[in-house]
Design a protein that fits this description.
Layout lengths: L6 E4 L6 E9 L3 H9 L9 E6 L5 E10 L10 E8 L1 H13 L3 E2 L4 H8 L5 H11 L4 H11 L2 H24 L5 H5 L2 H29 L1 E7 L5 H9 L17 E7 L2 E7 L9 H15 L3 E7 L17 E7 L17 E3 L8 H12 L12 H22 L4 H19 L5 H8 L7
Parallel strand pairs: 1-6, 7-9, 7-10, 10-11, 11-12
Antiparallel strand pairs: 1-2, 2-5, 3-4, 4-5, 8-9
Length: 444
């Protein structure tokens, strides 16, 4: 990094509140503190202070916290001004810091500096953003596990094992006459087995973490009056959708976010699938079909008192995984749920709740989610990098079995190690880092 500038930003959300915090970080922090407070506060002590403007007039009275480098979040000198949480006060304090040479921070720039100064690795930095945006207690716990370094520690341990195997292979390159002895050595097989098991365990835990963070995109579809909106209300636990006996009540997409044992599920209720001349309903049907194509799972709801219409099974969505929900089983005229060759079926009653526990289990299964899994907060890029590293390792393992050139094996292992480094940020490009931190809050 080039010589850092001093940056400033509010660290609390915009609006009115009891407390508002302005954070300053960089080489000019001491100068800002002396000018605004009249002195440099005692490090790591909350000090009641007057926050003054350039003319010595009081902007606010609050607490000042000073953290000298390197013992701060960013690894630089950091000053936090805890004042009254009004937008005018915050703006005046930020403007005063800018007047003294600071500039407004970019989104995530404080965390980015912490990363570059070795205070956090990339997984931990991302976990901060995930903790802030956590939608459930389970997601918050997963983010805290990643922030504490559990995820990073497992990746580092795996990377070290890959490097040890690579060094072992490279050592054998100098002794080509002993290839067979090397390949048959118990130590090689033990290393390969250990690394393979570590890849499998980490990948499974990361999949759980990504499910907690990103959730499942579920679309409820079916013919009119099948009970789609009633099913949404039953899953949500409140009346999210209007329910009537009039076909076509739902014309546009209705989105709701629910949680099933901590798993976030983004549910979309759609217009009933039927032929119609209504222009508005036609548009709703078009949007419904587009949403189904982008879904992780389609819940295709069927009225159990009517069953499938002729030819309806053949029209079930083909672009996404589909679960047939045989609804209204509480009614005396309800038909038995059918057994379909290629579609799972679950029988429920949106009115009484019968079958809903099984449906919820099916939703978790579709996401590959298990409750109390000890997951870490994880993102798509983590899965991609781990999958690439695992694939390269498996290629290296295959080359060893085929007694291929040790140089090729060593190169595959080198690339696998590099892919693991992308997870924690050790080998990530500036473009990737910029894209990641740009999604953070301004003051974080």
């Amino acid at each position: 990094m080039s010589a850092p500038e001093t940056i400033v930003a509010p660290a609390t959300p915009p609006g009115r509140g009891g407390i508002g915090i302005v954070r300053i970080s960089g080489p000019g922090t001491r100068r800002v503190a002396t000018a605004v407070l009249g002195r440099l506060p005692v490090p790591r002590h909350a000090t009641v202070s007057v926050f003054a403007d350039s003319g010595g007039h009081t902007i606010d009275v609050g607490l000042a916290l000073y953290f000298p480098a390197p013992d701060s979040f960013t690894g630089e000198d950091v000053l936090e001004l805890h004042g009254h949480g009004g937008p005018v006060v915050m703006d005046l304090l930020v403007a005063r810091a800018v007047e003294l040479g600071a500039r407004l921070a970019r989104p995530g720039e404080f965390s980015e500096r912490a990363f570059h100064n070795g205070k956090l690795d990339l997984v931990q930095a991302e976990a901060i953003a995930d903790l802030i945006s956590a939608g459930s207690a389970e997601a918050a716990r997963a983010a805290l596990r990643s922030l504490s370094g559990v995820f990073s520690g497992e990746v580092h341990a795996l990377a070290a094992k890959v490097m040890e195997l690579r060094a072992y292979v490279e050592a054998a390159i100098d002794f080509p006459d002993e290839d067979a002895e090397f390949l048959e050595a118990p130590e090689v097989r033990e290393r390969l087995t250990d690394i393979g098991e570590r890849f499998a365990a980490i990948s499974e835990t990361v999949r759980q973490g990504r499910a907690l963070r990103d959730g499942l995109h579920v679309v409820i579809a079916g013919r009119p009056n099948a009970g789609k909106s009633s099913l949404l209300n039953a899953l949500a636990g409140f009346d999210a959708a209007i329910v009537t006996e009039i076909p076509g009540t739902t014309r546009d997409l209705l989105r709701e976010r629910i949680h099933v044992d901590g798993l976030p599920i983004h549910v979309v209720d759609t217009a009933g699938l039927r032929d119609t001349d209504d222009v508005i309903e036609i548009e709703g049907l078009r949007r419904a079909r587009m949403e189904m194509n982008n879904a992780d799972l389609v819940l295709y709801v069927v009225d159990a008192t009517r069953g499938f219409a002729p030819g309806e099974v053949a029209t079930l969505p083909a672009g996404a995984a589909t679960l047939v929900v045989w609804n209204k089983i509480d009614l005396p005229e309800a038909l038995l749920a059918p057994a379909l060759d290629d579609r799972p079926v679950v029988a429920v009653s949106s009115l009484t709740g019968a079958g809903l526990p099984l449906l919820r289990e099916q939703l978790k299964s579709a996401a590959g989610y298990q409750s109390e899994s000890g997951a870490w907060s994880a993102r798509r890029r983590h899965l991609d990098a781990l999958a690439r590293a695992q694939s390269l390792f498996e290629v290296a393992e295959g080359r060893l079995a085929e007694r291929a050139s040790f140089e090729l094996v060593a190169e595959e292992l080198r690339q696998a190690h590099q892919a693991l480094g992308e997870v924690t940020g050790e080998t990530s490009s500036d473009a990737i880092l910029g894209a990641i931190f740009a999604t953070f809050c301004i003051g974080k």
